[in-house]
Amino acid sequence: MMKKLTFFLSILIIGLSAKAQYTERVTDNVMFRRNGASISRLSILIPIPQTNQYQTVHNVAYEGGVYCEVDNSDDRYARFQFNNVSDDNIMVGVRTELTHHSINVDFSQIDESISYDMTSEEYRLYTGSTAGGYVDPDNPVIRSLADNIWNSSEGIVNFAYNCYDYVAENYTFLNPNTGIHPLSQILADGGGDAGNLSSILISLLRCKGIPSRHVVAIYSNGEKHVWAEFKIEGYGWIPMDVCYHQSDPYGNYFGRYNTDAIVVGYDVGHTYSRWGSTDTFVMDILQTYFWWWWGNGGESSVEWQISGEEIDPPTVVEEFDHNEWNIYQFNGNIVIELSECTDNLSEERTISVFDLLGRPIVLPRKMQNNREVVSVPSTGVYLIKMGRTKTIKIFVLKQ
After folding, report:
1. CATH number, domain with residue 114
2. What is the CATH number of the domain that holds 59?
3. Residue partners of 132: CB distance under 8 A and separation at least 6
4. How far apart are CA 37 and CA 87, in angstroms?
5. For residues 373 and 383, is the Cβ–Cβ distance under 8 A?
């Protein structure tokens, strides 16, 4: 019995270009070739993009895959499993329809006087060390640098900018396509690629109790990238791309984002399941795919294939008038998310769905937590009503 572990990932710096509100259908495939091997088991993981500030996901399909959640994270992935493989070639993939968003932070609107909720799980996750030592705010070099930069800064945003500036000026872009390294190795090498330079920046911010994390992305032309973002309480997450800043010192990549990147995950050093729920492992980064096979003989191989095509965005006939709600399609369902739960919205946590003839698709029911998945036919126009309000959103779902 031979157990083979192989992965593909690379983090490249690419040019900054984009189409505002660009919507595309992305086909992210992995082709497996058996090449004469005797294979008892095969497992392939592919990340599933999620809706966030960089993109709105309208539709996702992953035929034959198992939908998996990453513990302590919003990241998701599809796991494709095969027993006693006899086919010479197997193609698996994730197809996503999404709209890209640009970001340009107005720093005059930020109030730094709002304190972080240090008791929250999010704060704990994004101010501490990661598994594998990829981010380490307690590293002595990081602590010394963070103290020096903090003493010459005025406030959180200014400190974050000074760290972003310092890393770009004092560390080198090197060792591309080699994955995320432990922070101690990055510091000893004097730098790294986009993801590893981001690790230095993130470690500096976490050292001062500022939530920060990696943003892991791919492009439909096959390129890959990673940048960092930090959080201001009461405002949200702010992007900062130290790698772009290093290559273009006069450009502004702090609080700005304007590319067609497909964000596939946040942070590094997560635990993934490669076979069932008990066979787990910690991986530095799931950016494109990961695969294993168990068996003997032959030289099995995989090939990553990604492409994108511009499509028309989903049609929203009437906008829902509460910005606390996010409604979108996911894998043939309607997903309803409540981003802010306040007392005056408690009645609106009851949802119901009707077709255009007023026939009920989903009877009124209470939302569980802040997220509800509503099963509906894969195409159509639906009326979504919240609680007793008269506000209704009409949403067109497309295959």
Report:
1. 3.10.620.30
2. 2.60.40.2250
3. 180, 182, 268, 269, 282, 284
4. 11
5. no
Within this chain, do residues 158 and 252 fall inside the same structural domain, yes or no? yes
CA distance 22 to 241: 21
- pLDDT (tens digit, 0 to 9) for every residue of the chain, 399 residues total? 333 343 333 333 333 444 557 899 999 999 999 999 999 999 999 999 988 889 888 788 888 999 899 988 989 999 999 999 999 999 999 999 998 989 999 999 899 999 999 999 999 999 999 989 999 999 999 999 999 999 999 999 999 999 999 999 999 999 998 999 999 999 999 999 999 999 999 999 999 999 999 999 999 999 999 999 999 998 999 999 999 999 998 888 999 998 899 999 999 999 999 998 789 989 999 999 999 999 988 889 999 999 999 988 765 444 444 445 555 555 555 566 554 444 444 445 566 776 655 666 666 666 555 556 666 555 555 666 655 553 444 444 443
Can you tell me the distance from the alpha carbon of 274 to that of 4, in angstroms, rounded to the nearest whole number? 12
Amino acid at 300: S
* Same domain (yes/no): 235, 154: yes
251/385 same-domain check: no
For residue 181, give both structure tokens: 């390294």
Whether the CB-CB separation of 142 and 149 falls below 8 Å is answered with: no
Report the C-alpha gap between 219 and 267 in whole angstroms. 18
Strand (E) or helix (H) holding 169:
helix 156-170
Distance of CA 80 to the CA centre of its chain: 20
pTM: 0.78
Total domains in the fold of the chain: 3
| Claim to verify: residue 167 and residue 254 sit in the same structural domain | yes
Count helices and strands in the chain by DSSP H and E runs: 6, 27
Give the domain extent around 86: 2-101+265-310
Are 153 and 176 part of one and the same domain?
yes
**88 & 157 share domain:** no
Question: What CATH number has the domain bearing residue 349?
Answer: 2.60.40
- Asked if 97 and 223 sit in the same domain, the reply is no
Q: Are residues 116 and 216 in the same domain?
A: yes
User: In angstroms, how far is the first alpha carbon of the chain from the final one?
Assistant: 43
